[in-house]
Design goal:
- It contains four helices and three strands.
- By secondary structure, it is an alpha+beta fold.
- The protein has one domain: Arc Repressor Mutant, subunit A (Orthogonal Bundle).
- The longest helix has 25 residues.
- The two termini are 22 Å apart.
């Protein structure tokens, strides 16, 4: 199954989730998403999502100077973003549970 379309629908949730505990800059967020198992996530998709979430007030940003290259723009989750994360997480869990029930093979025992 091509997961790129599925990923587009949940990228906001995934980005907010990886920023829940620790702020991060663009490529750091991409790496964290990939290490969590979202191997197909594209750099451009994540950067676009960061811009959109920032414009919506779900993220804040600040610049950190770097001695080893260009300054890095870090993103952190705002209170509005935390509310969005909580709401989206509940919706995702309900949706995922419904889909799991629909696609389950009859007689299969889920671990």
């Amino acid at each position: 199954m091509d997961t790129t379309q599925l990923l587009k629908g949940v990228l906001d949730l995934a980005v907010l989730a990886v920023l829940r505990e620790t702020d991060g800059y663009g490529y750091d967020i991409v790496r964290r998403l990939r290490s969590a198992g979202l191997d197909e996530v594209g750099d451009a998709s994540v950067y676009g999502t960061l811009r959109r979430l920032y414009q919506a007030g779900s993220l804040s940003s600040y610049v950190v100077p770097s001695d080893e290259g260009p300054h890095r723009k870090y993103y952190g989750i705002t209170d509005s973003g935390r509310r969005q994360l909580a709401d989206s997480s509940k919706k995702w869990c309900a949706f995922a549970g419904t889909m799991s029930g629909l696609v389950r093979i009859p007689g299969e025992v889920l671990a």
